Structures are given as C-alpha cells and as structure tokens.
Amino acid sequence: MLRGISQLPAVATMSWVLLPVLWLIVQTQASNCAWPKVSIQ
Predict the structure, then answer these.
(1) Which long-range contacts link 17-21 to residues 24+ away (Cβ below 8 Å)?
(2) pLDDT tens by residue, 9-39
(3) Taking the chain, what is the end-to-end CA distance rounded to the nearest angstrom?
C-alpha cells in the first residue's frame, strides 16, 4: 500500500515529462508532413 502511494509522484512526474515530448514529436511530424501548419512560428 505504502509502496504504491510512494510511486504516484514518480508517475505524475513522468507523465508531465512525456506530455511535452509527445507534443514536440507531433509538432515536428506536422511540420515535416504536408499538414496545414497550425502552430505559430
């Protein structure tokens, strides 16, 4: 029980780190493809 609770901050930190990384990957893929560029540059 305590072990699972102590792992929650690590999971939350990983999710906050992975979300911007996934967003950057989506942005780079969108700029490489012929998709209309929605991002402000």
Answers:
(1) none
(2) 888 898 899 999 999 988 888 777 655 555 5
(3) 47
